[in-house]
Every structure is written in structure tokens, then in C-alpha cells.
């Protein structure tokens, strides 16, 4: 399964935390998010396969079609997850999945793709920058149960 590799990568690189440490708990929560989005939000997913091996990556997207209150756009496709098998990273699988996501965005009338990158995940941020993504907003977090 690919998701545990994403979870492990996040645990390895995240500069903000704490993250959910148990992979099974993290997967259960992510799977619930996927299931609800597929049932209620016209979400889609894309799978990169290599024969005979099978799946080596996937992307999960949720559309937010229509005008935005901040950015001039006809619609946004949010790239919720992009996962590539650890041994296939750096071989173009992520870029191919992004290209598929962008083609899907155009086909559903969205003119923008949005993705959040885990703070500390410089490799993923570099991939998105190489294929043309630029910061549009910065998400800030503050843990209220800790002094800053």
C-alpha cells in the first residue's frame, strides 16, 4: 500500500508537529476523508501503474468549481494527496500524475490547481516548483496547548 510511505515521509521531514504517529490511525483517517470526498464532493483519483508491478503512485483531487472570493478563477481543483512509491521518486512518476491532474482540472472547467505541501518537505516543494507551481497562500498553524 502506498499511503504508509507518504505517512512515513511526512514523519521524516515535517518541521511542524506533532503528527499522527501511528500509521494505521493515520490511514484510517485519510481513508475516511477519501471515502467522504468520493461520495459527496465529486472527488477523483489517478493511479500510476508500472507493469508487472502495479501501482507506484496516486493522486487524489477534490474540485471547488465556480468563482473564488480572493483569486480570479473559474474553479480550483485541490490536489489533496500525491503519493509516489519511495523507490520510484525522482523518476517522473509525480510529474506524470500532476500532468494527469491538470488535464482533469481543465476537463471539469477548473483553471487552477491548488496543493498544500507539508512544511519541511523540500523535495515535494521542489517538484511542484519545477512544474510551475508558485505560493499563493501560506497556511499558518499554532498549537493552543503549548506556549509559543
Architecture overview:
By secondary structure, the protein is of the alpha+beta class. It has a single domain (3-130), classed as Gcn5-related N-acetyltransferase (GNAT) (Aminopeptidase), CATH 3.40.630. The termini are far apart. It has a four-stranded mixed β-sheet, sandwiched between helices. 36% of the residues lie in helices and 22% in strands. It has four helices and four strands, in the order ααβββαβα.
How much β-strand is present in the residues?
15-25%
Largest sheet: 4 strands, mixed
With helices defined by DSSP (H or I, 4 residues minimum), what is the helix count?
A: 4
Outline: globular
| Topology, number of strands | 4
Query: Uncertain runs with pLDDT below 50, 5 residues or more?
Result: none
- Provide the number of structural domains: 1
CATH class reads Alpha Beta
Q: By helix and strand content, what is the structural category?
A: alpha+beta
Order of helices and strands: HHEEEHEH
Q: CATH homologous superfamily name? A: Gcn5-related N-acetyltransferase (GNAT)
State the CATH topology. Answer: Aminopeptidase
Strand order, main sheet: write it out: 1-2-3-4
Cα(first) to Cα(last) distance is: 37 Å
* Global mean pLDDT: 94
Helix content: 25-40%
Amino acid at each position: 500500500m502506498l499511503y504508509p510511505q507518504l505517512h512515513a515521509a511526512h514523519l521524516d521531514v515535517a518541521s511542524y508537529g506533532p503528527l499522527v504517529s501511528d500509521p494505521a490511525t493515520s490511514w484510517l483517517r485519510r481513508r475516511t476523508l477519501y471515502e467522504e470526498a468520493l461520495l459527496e464532493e465529486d472527488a477523483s483519483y489517478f493511479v500510476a501503474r508500472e507493469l508487472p508491478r502495479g501501482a507506484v503512485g496516486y493522486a487524489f483531487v477534490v474540485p471547488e468549481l465556480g468563482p473564488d472570493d480572493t483569486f480570479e478563477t473559474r474553479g480550483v481543483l485541490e490536489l489533496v494527496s500525491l503519493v509516489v512509491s519511495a523507490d520510484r521518486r525522482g523518476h517522473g512518476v509525480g510529474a506524470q500524475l500532476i500532468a494527469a491532474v491538470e488535464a482533469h482540472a481543465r476537463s471539469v472547467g477548473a483553471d487552477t490547481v491548488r496543493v498544500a505541501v507539508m512544511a519541511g518537505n523540500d523535495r515535494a516543494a521542489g517538484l511542484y516548483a519545477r512544474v510551475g507551481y508558485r505560493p499563493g497562500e501560506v497556511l499558518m498553524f499554532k498549537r493552543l496547548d503549548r506556549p509559543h
